[in-house]
């Protein structure tokens, strides 16, 4: 359960890039690429939006969040009730730095925020070691 569940159990792969490329092995009726991931993200986002009574910003980070426009679009597809509107063209663009992928009319700003885990680890290491 700890080693072959989740994405690996559903698709046979542990890397979302393989799933997004449609490489799914050992399944008679594989889920369409990132269906399960998007459903899970929508479930959590909807629950948080309900608990918070809305949001000002939704951000996507790290490997999948930065590089998979289809996952971002799928994750936000049914959140229009909360004022989330994604600009398909902006969402599909590759870029550097923080970028807005929501429409100008969206009540919620949707961002793609690049991460740099190595830099953060180095900063925290310096802080802990007093360097």
Question: Which helices and strands occur, and which strands form pairs?
Answer:
Blueprint: H1 6-11, H2 16-20, H3 35-52, E1 57-61, H4 62-67, H5 69-76, H6 88-92, E2 99-100, E3 109-113, H7 117-129
Parallel strand pairs: 1-3
Antiparallel strand pairs: 2-3
Helix pairs in contact: 3-5
Helix content: 40-55%
Total helical segments:
7
The average pLDDT score comes to 82
Low-confidence stretches: none
Fraction of residues in β-strands:
5-15%
Structural class: mainly alpha
- Number of distinct beta strands: 3
CATH superfamily of the domain at 54-129: ATPase, nucleotide binding domain
Element order, helices and strands?
A: HHHEHHHEEH
CATH structural architecture of the domain at 54-129: 2-Layer Sandwich
Radius of gyration: 17 Å
N- to C-terminal distance: 41 Å
Shape: globular
Biggest β-sheet description: 3 strands, mixed
Instruction: Tell me the CATH topology of the domain at 54-129.
Output: Nucleotidyltransferase, domain 5
CATH class of the domain at 54-129: Alpha Beta
Query: How are the strands of the biggest sheet laid out side by side?
Result: 1-3-2
